[in-house]
Specification:
Layout lengths: L17 H5 L16 H17 L6 H12 L3 H8 L7 H10 L25 H15 L12
Length: about 150
């Protein structure tokens, strides 16, 4: 006769029998393999670490710096740590959160050798793109060009 576990003790009769119940492994399957950190992950990790070091230089250690940044942006300390050790990739939302926390543009976090004291600015649009944008702005918004000294044709 099969063993019946007493429900009053919080135990129940397993539907497939005790042998199956005792030998089950709910976490069976392929183990995840870590991805090799990509070039962009390395750049973002280095830039985040440099920015934390520069903006929170009064804090005694990296965890204290990350905690201060968490208080400012809401980006969890664990997430910051995973980015720095390049364990996970990050979403665009996370990249934007980091950038806004340091008053940077998102693209600046993707620049290799970011100068944290004076962040580089990428060159703007080509002259043809600038002219097209000014024409669109004048037609659709009825506003003067952003740069009145710039030629309009």
């Amino acid at each position: 006769m099969p063993t019946i576990l007493d429900p009053s003790l919080g135990l129940r009769n397993p539907p497939l029998g005790l042998d199956r119940w005792n030998n089950s492994n709910p976490m069976a399957g392929k183990k995840k393999t870590r991805k090799v950190p990509s070039f962009m992950r390395q750049i973002v990790a280095e830039n985040l670490k440099k920015l934390l070091d520069e903006h929170y230089k009064d804090e005694p250690n990296i965890t204290a710096k990350q905690t201060k940044f968490f208080e400012k942006t809401g980006l969890a300390v664990a997430t910051q740590q995973r980015i720095i050790v390049q364990e996970n990739g990050l979403s665009l939302d996370t990249l934007e959160t980091i950038a806004s926390g340091f008053d940077l543009s998102t693209y600046q976090l993707l620049l290799a050798d970011l100068d944290v004291k004076n962040p580089q600015v990428a060159p703007g649009a080509a002259k043809g793109e600038q002219r097209a944008y000014r024409r669109w702005q004048q037609r659709n918004l009825g506003k003067a060009p952003l740069n009145p000294q710039a030629p309009t044709s």
